[in-house]
Amino acid sequence: MDLKHDEGISVRKKFSKNELSSKEDGMGQRSEKNQANNLYDSLDKKRDASMVGLSYLLDELNKFQAFSTKMNELISRNMDQVIQLHERDGITFVRIKNILRFEAQGAYTRVHFTNYSVLISRHLKHFEDQITSDFFCRIHQSHFVNLFFVEKYLNQDGGQIQMIDDSLIPLAKSRKKEFFGAINKYHNSFIFER
């Protein structure tokens, strides 16, 4: 590289062809190294981000597994209770988790399941006293429901409960507070604290 003064006014660089090509090769190697370093840094950052994401997913999975375990314990503790249904031809033993609701019909009680119902010669109070689960609630003089099968609350006709089988059950005004307290307690038992 020669630096020459032209009449003392400007300085310009002169490169020979060999110097120019060697400079380009040197720059090419440097830029390849820079690109490789940049790529490595980028991959390193992505790997770190992936590890953070994976760590988050594993934490969420652990929380879900703990929630699932807690839910299964609650259900088995509260819903595996077996009651007796005295029918004409004998006694049927059923788990309360399979019962949608009980409906009083005079001195009898109709026990509703998802696909069928049976009429039992016992008062509704008999079943209310027999069931110890927090998942059942008396919502009306004639209805004792499994909160697990409540689909929605409707604000029509003074308040109604829609069950998963689409049956509509009146909610007594005197039992609204009790129902909402029970349904909140039921839902809160399934909320996993973070």
What does this structure look like?
The protein is built from 3 helices and 12 strands, in the order ββαβββββαβββββα. With 194 residues, the chain is of the alpha+beta class. It folds into 2 domains: 14-77; 95-188, Beta Barrel (OB fold (Dihydrolipoamide Acetyltransferase, E2P)), CATH 2.40.50.1020. A hairpin with a 2-residue loop joins β3 (82-87) and β4. The radius of gyration is 38 Å and the shape is elongated. Mean pLDDT is 77; it is low at 1-25. Pfam families: LytTR.
- Classification by helices and strands: alpha+beta
Shape: elongated
Indicate the low-confidence ranges by residue numbers.
Answer: 1-25
- Spatially, the strands of the biggest sheet line up as 7-6-5-9-8
Search tags:
single chain, 194 residues, alpha+beta, OB fold (Dihydrolipoamide Acetyltransferase, E2P), 2 domains, five-stranded antiparallel β-sheet, three-stranded antiparallel β-sheet, 43% helix, 29% strand, DNA binding, LytTr DNA-binding domain-containing protein, phosphorelay response regulator activity, LytR-like, LytTR_DNA-bd_dom
Q: How is the secondary structure organized here?
A:
Elements: E1 2-6, E2 10-14, H1 17-79, E3 82-87, E4 90-95, E5 101-105, E6 108-112, E7 117-120, H2 124-130, E8 136-140, E9 143-146, E10 150-154, E11 160-163, E12 168-170, H3 176-188
Antiparallel strand pairs: 1-2, 3-4, 5-6, 5-9, 6-7, 8-9, 10-11, 11-12
